[in-house]
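During the first year of the project, the team set up a workflow for recording each protein of interest as an amino acid sequence followed immediately by a discrete structure-token representation. This format lets reviewers and collaborators read both layers of information side by side without switching files. As required by the reporting guidelines, we include two representative entries from the current panel. The first entry is reproduced here exactly as it appears in our internal archive.
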Amino acid sequence: LMVGIERLSIFGNLKHYPLSDIFLGLQRSEKTGILEMKNGPVLKRIYIKNGDMIFATSNQEEDRLGEVLVKAGKLTLEQYYQSIESMKKTGKRQGAVLVELGYLKPKDLIWAVTHQVEEIILSLFQWEDGEFEFKEVPLPSEEVITLKLSAANLVFRGVKRIDNFTYLKDGFFLMDAILDYSADPMDLFQDIRLEEKDKDILFLID
């Protein structure tokens, strides 16, 4: 994965491949296709264009736009239920309904969809088991909104959400390893946002 994908399809289990390696491998491959992640009845799809993640979908109710906005504090429960009723009557998507009802401004809709997609992707870092398959296929343009997502930021934020120390220890580094900055230009990220605490820790690496 880390040197690029040569086949039209690649698959495996998260027990054997860290999700961060999968994402970075796909980014370096610069391929276009769909990464499917399955864990029991849960199915999430990440759409990749030229190696970059541009969109994601999920069959879980908690990943729907309205639920994500309620959890983010951007939508009240009353507004959420009103939007559901309007969706049933009009058949429109929830994002369009939220704008029509005045609960979201048109300029905020892109933020809302981006936040939803990022939450779908970030939730995958908490999976310790699950099947994945990448299929190199054309993207369905009528279903996919092209967003500009930073793989570096998503991997960084996703790894920080992992709370299983044993999984981190076994999958990412040796406890007696000495950390150093990488000289490989492929390891350098052009877009990654660090909090002040992150910057302080990075500065201490020597």
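The second entry, processed by the same pipeline in the following quarter, appears below.
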Amino acid sequence: MKKNRNCFLGICSLLLILTGCWDVVNIEDRGFIIGNSIDLVDSANSDQPELLVTNQIVIGSGIPSAANEGGDKKAFINFKTTGKSIYKMEEEIATISNNTPFYEHLTTLIVSEKVAEKERLFTNLLDTYIRNVNLRRGIQVVIAKNEANKVLEYTTPDFPLPAMHIEEMLERGSRETGLLAPTTLGDIEEYQLNKNSYVLPYLELKDVLSYQAGAVFHGPKDKMVGLFNMDDMLALSLFRGEKTTKIIEAPFKDNTFTLQINRLNSTLNVDSSDISAIKINLTLEVEGIIKETFMTEDLSSQKVVESVQDEMSKEISKRIKETFTKAQKEFGTDVFRIWQELETKHYEKWQKIKDNWEEGEYYFKDAQLIVDVVTEIYSIGAINRTR
């Protein structure tokens, strides 16, 4: 009896192994969604406006390979649906596509400026993505001028997939020009839960797709309130001490020189003894090399180099103060994260003023910024002077 029972159990185990996964989907039957965009179609109903959602699905046979380079077949297809519920529209994709939608490779979410400017709408829409267990929290989120779905149609010879082109453009912009690092869905969720202000990459499509601005979001108002230009974005990056290569121009005796910043050390101290006039002290230590100059002075002279260093220090300080004033007076947004310093090192004071930092009594409006920049040029390039 015992022998028969063991034999029966063995057969059952073998049958379980041979059965396989009941919910398996062959890879050929999956529709890999790598890009997503949201546009505003009709805002007549302010509580639940009409939306256009675009899903970019990869077509494997359209991607150039060693065996099929330069093929004229598109590497993607964009499925568009309209409605008032993101979830219902995603369901509709499954009815019009030949493949089962697969979202785990989604890399980029593009939201139109009109959607971002409507109070609470951006947060409500992102909540749908955050709750979806099939989506990664590392999805990069960007804002697009005009129609976001048009951005998902822009391709280049090097990047036949628009979503991949955007991902590479954001990373390269951060790495090589000092623009802000890409912001993920997980980052935004944390900002929104704490009602913190933040900046997202802002894309514009004309003849080419460009990333040269930042969309500023007001935490308590829960919407986009304005734009930072390239100079503002660089100033914010310098303030935060982000360790990426940065290029900055400065005037010198009616001429211009360009410094490549390779090392940056930022120290921030906040004096909260008077909450009606909080003092913010920023010290920046900057090291770099001269990349381009129209000066006629001899850069082998220590006196000339010291003068150039002083001018660069003044230029960096000026830019940071101008951007801080813009954020403070024009947008009312603490995207410089002064709140973080207060919460960490002045917790009791922060508990008293946190609900009135960017609204109500608006203590951030009267905060005073003091900037001290020390610049050191450790290389002047291959020659000492220009003609």
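For the second entry, the following points were noted during internal review. The first strand starts at residue 30 and ends at 42. The chain has eleven helices and 13 strands. Both points are flagged for discussion at the upcoming steering committee meeting.
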